[in-house]
User: Fold these one by one.
Assistant:
Number 1:
Amino acid sequence: MRNIAAAVAVTAALPAVAWADQTARAVGFREAEDDRAIVQPFNRTVDDIEDMNVYGTGGEKIGEIEEVLIDTSGNIAAVAVESGGFLGIGDEEVVVMLDQLTLEGDRFSTSLTKDQLLALPRWKD
């Protein structure tokens, strides 16, 4: 009976996750292929930015950049930030626009809270 309840709970959550994935795809983002491309306004390469940590306003780590994303015009416009979960289990990747990030030294920060970050459209590569 417990397994049935868990399956129902997971199934009920699937439409929301699928919708969020479609939302990120619907705006036309795709993964940047050129690791040497410069990400403005940060003047860093795609390769430099991937795997950098993202910190919230309280100085807490709220995620890590997994992918740099380009829009339908071919411009670098956003990143996929992995957040949530524990030890790599249950984390989500969300689309964060570049204007929601600031580079402070060797780390990114945002005014978004972890909850606000997790409410953004999902990215599934």
Number 2:
Amino acid sequence: MACEHTFEVIKSVKEINSPEHCEKCNAVAVRTIATSQAFFGANDWDTAHYSPAFGKVVKNNLEARRLAKERGYVEIGNEPVENIHSHYDKAREQKADKRYQDVVDSLTNLGEIA
């Protein structure tokens, strides 16, 4: 059981999920976030944000992808447009190649092409 010693820690948003240990008993401290304090360092908010999907602050997209993979989540709606175009361009090309090959095969069967 923890000793119930209270202490304050001020840290950036990037470090908010790192656990703190009691300086007296070394137990992992229970976190209470003070509402009266201002957050400093706007740059922290540029790269870190609270994610309701994970229930914690996520530092960057790489961490979000890692957490999603660990939890079996599938991200939807965030696919880059280039990947979508590439996928459909490739599908159209394969369909056209198949139609061409079907025509060549049918003409070969008719003896038109040797």
